[in-house]
Structure to design on (415 residues):
């Protein structure tokens, strides 16, 4: 057996075992935390809501265990047990051009992979979310969203795949750099187009009608030096009772979006404080930094793919007998997450630091006490675990644990 096969199997086994271990720790932490509401939430969140959050988090962790094991089996099936070779053989038998064969192979593989993981998505939506009172999605809506997503992915993804494969075969030794330029431009274009052209295919966005809240928000925007193409309310309640707020887009196509569930749950000053936090990410250049880092990592990844594409062992060690540009791309997409998984806590830690910085900005631009009240309501309404397992949280969580975050905001409010 080739050394890379052993490395692949070791990375798969260790990554799978670690994911399962972290899920088991989280389940145990939730069982231990059910008895009492942690400080400083004991006066603002009742025991029943806290226990619901513990049970909801534990339920999601229980689903994660078979999901991780299932993904590992599928990955072995696609690679060492010949799934990709079988699909490649079928497409090759059609005697199409290399470009059409490659596009067909990649698109069909991605469709089959999505279909094979669909049962877990259905279970989470119609069993876990339903059990805890969050799901508002009907089976018809689920199917319609699935079909819409499929066609949007085809319209946007097929041309990108075709261009990248053409570059891999025609642009020489530095094809990966030209592919990176194409991918970067494509990503920026999608980021610009998403709020106005893609998101409305799935949700309704209405201009904010509450004049008092609108005036308050516009005043905040002026203080923060933020220009937006609009303030919108999204019909999040049609699919879920979870609440959120975000801003999206780049350049002159930036939008501020509130879930209608959040507008209904929070007071105007609390909504302002939540928005001030989101604006903090913008003013502190967190989004720009993440985009730049993503593009740099993409460049490194494509350069590595450019080298692997030329290595015969890269194919044979993963159960593929026939090398090709499209097969190299497919194998890289499947295998690279195994080796980048170890960097997950680095990304999570950076994200948590950005959340603290955005909280500090919100405390200066708005009201720290109002943000605390808003967070408490969001933790309650979204059934957010207040006492997550420390190791699980440090490895995965993009946001700081509630008690830690609120304690820092209380210190800011006091000062």
């Amino acid at each position: 057996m080739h050394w890379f096969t052993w490395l692949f199997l070791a990375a798969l086994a260790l990554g799978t075992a670690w994911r399962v271990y972290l899920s088991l720790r989280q389940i145990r932490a939730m069982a231990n935390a059910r008895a009492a509401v942690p400080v400083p939430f004991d006066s603002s969140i009742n025991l029943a809501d806290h226990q619901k959050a513990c049970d909801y988090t534990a339920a999601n962790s229980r689903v994660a265990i078979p999901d991780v094991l299932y993904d590992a089996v599928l990955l072995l099936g696609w690679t060492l047990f010949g799934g990709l070779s079988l699909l490649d053989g079928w497409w090759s038998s059609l005697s199409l051009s290399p470009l059409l064969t490659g596009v067909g192979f990649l698109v069909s593989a991605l469709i089959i992979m999505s279909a094979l993981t669909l049962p877990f998505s259905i279970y989470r939506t119609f069993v876990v979310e339903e059990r805890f009172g969050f799901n508002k999605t009907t089976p018809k809506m689920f199917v319609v969203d699935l079909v819409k997503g499929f066609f949007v992915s085809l319209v946007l993804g097929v041309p990108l795949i075709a261009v990248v494969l053409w570059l891999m075969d025609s642009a020489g030794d530095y094809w990966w750099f030209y592919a990176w330029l194409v991918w970067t431009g494509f990503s920026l274009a999608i980021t610009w187009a998403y709020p106005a052209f893609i998101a409305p295919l799935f949700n309704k966005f209405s201009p904010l009608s509450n004049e008092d809240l609108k005036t308050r928000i516009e005043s905040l925007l002026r203080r923060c030096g933020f220009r937006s193409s609009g303030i919108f309310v999204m019909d999040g309640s049609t699919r879920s009772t979870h609440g959120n707020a975000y801003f999206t887009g780049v350049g002159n196509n930036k939008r501020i979006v509130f879930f209608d569930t959040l507008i209904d749950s929070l007071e105007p000053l609390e909504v302002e404080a939540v928005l001030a936090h989101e604006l903090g990410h913008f003013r502190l250049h967190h989004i720009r930094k993440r985009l730049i880092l993503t593009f740099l990592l993409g460049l490194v990844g494509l350069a590595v793919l450019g080298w692997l594409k030329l290595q015969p062992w890269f194919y044979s060690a993963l159960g593929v007998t026939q090398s090709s540009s499209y097969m190299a791309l497919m194998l890289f997409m499947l295998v690279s997450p195994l080796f980048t998984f170890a960097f997950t806590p680095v990304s999570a830690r950076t994200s948590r630091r950005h959340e603290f910085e955005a909280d500090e900005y919100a405390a200066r631009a708005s009201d720290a006490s109002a943000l605390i009240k808003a967070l408490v309501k969001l933790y309650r309404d979204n059934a957010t675990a207040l006492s997550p397992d420390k190791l699980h949280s440090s490895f995965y969580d993009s946001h700081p644990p509630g008690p830690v975050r609120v304690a820092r905001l209380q210190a800011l409010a006091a000062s």
In short: The CA atoms of residues 273 and 366 lie 6 Å apart.
